[in-house]
Design a protein that fits this description.
Oligomer: single chain
Distance between the termini: 45 Å
Structural class: alpha/beta
Family: Belongs to the class I-like SAM-binding methyltransferase superfamily. MenG/UbiE family.
GO molecular function, one term: demethylmenaquinone methyltransferase activity
Number of helices: 9
Pathway: Quinol/quinone metabolism; menaquinone biosynthesis; menaquinol from 1,4-dihydroxy-2-naphthoate: step 2/2
Protein name: Demethylmenaquinone methyltransferase
Strand order of the largest sheet: 3-2-1-4-5-7-6
Low-confidence stretches: 1-6
Mean pLDDT: 86
Largest sheet: 7 strands, mixed
Keywords: Menaquinone biosynthesis, Methyltransferase, S-adenosyl-L-methionine, Transferase
Strand content: 15-25%
Length: about 230
């Protein structure tokens, strides 16, 4: 199985990511024209990991996204449901505590993390609201959530050009650099069907998060949502 459908059956999605694990980071770098590095730097600033804090990096893939938090001195748990991604991560970053877990049923106790974050993975979860509730559950009161996800460009002419790139240019580029290019057709479709920035903010609030806000990156290609678990 190299491509999942938009009903996002967990086994199909996990199998798809297993198939792209080896060249996943390289492919993302090429397809985003290097912008993914900037986006991850913005995530690291928003999470603001500190020594002694505990950070959950959900949908961490190979663990590359977890490195800034760990290097800042936080105890960082990279968690993903793709065993192929975790195997590749163990090969590259064997010192990280890579953990297998489903975003809708996280294998952690209540309130154990100071910060939880997920980058480019929430739209691949079958039940978005359940995942947001689980992130809330494992975060301590006063803790924070940071979500980095593809979104919708805010300027209409640019949005048209971007959507053309997703559906026409992305698949041929993926064929040249990815170990499983069909997976990137699904990823393009999942980006187009994902809720816009205000809708994701509403869903965060529904899950219990307060002080919800977002910031657009690259004209809204990506949005960085933040929230806090209320005290008490």
């Amino acid at each position: 199985m190299t491509r999942a459908s938009l009903d996002k059956k967990p086994h199909d999605v996990a199998s798809m990511f297993d198939a792209v694990a080896e060249r996943y980071d390289l492919t993302n770098d090429v397809l985003s024209l290097g912008q993914d590095r900037r986006w991850r730097k913005e995530v690291a600033r928003a999470v603001d990991a500190r020594p002694g804090q505990r950070v959950l990096d959900l949908a961490a893939g190979t663990g590359t996204s977890s490195l800034p938090f760990a290097l800042a001195g936080a105890f960082t748990v990279p968690c993903d449901f793709s065993l192929g991604m975790l195997r590749e991560g163990r090969r590259r970053h064997g010192w990280l505590p890579l953990t297998a877990g489903d975003a809708t049923r996280l294998p952690f106790k209540d309130g154990v993390f100071d910060a939880v974050t997920i980058s480019f993975g929430l739209r691949n979860v079958q039940d978005t609201d359940a995942a947001l509730a689980e992130l809330f559950r494992v975060t301590r009161p006063g803790g924070r959530v940071v979500i980095c996800e593809f979104s919708h460009p805010t300027w209409a002419p640019f949005r048209t050009v971007y959507e053309e790139y997703l559906m026409r240019a992305l698949p041929p580029v993926a064929r040249a650099v990815s170990s499983s290019p069909d997976a990137y057709v699904y990823l393009a479709e999942s980006i187009q069907s994902w809720p816009d920035q205000p809708e994701l903010a509403r869903r965060l609030q529904k899950a219990g998060w307060s002080k919800v806000a977002w910031r657009n990156l690259s004209g809204g290609i990506v949005a960085l949502h933040r929230g806090t678990r209320p005290q008490g």
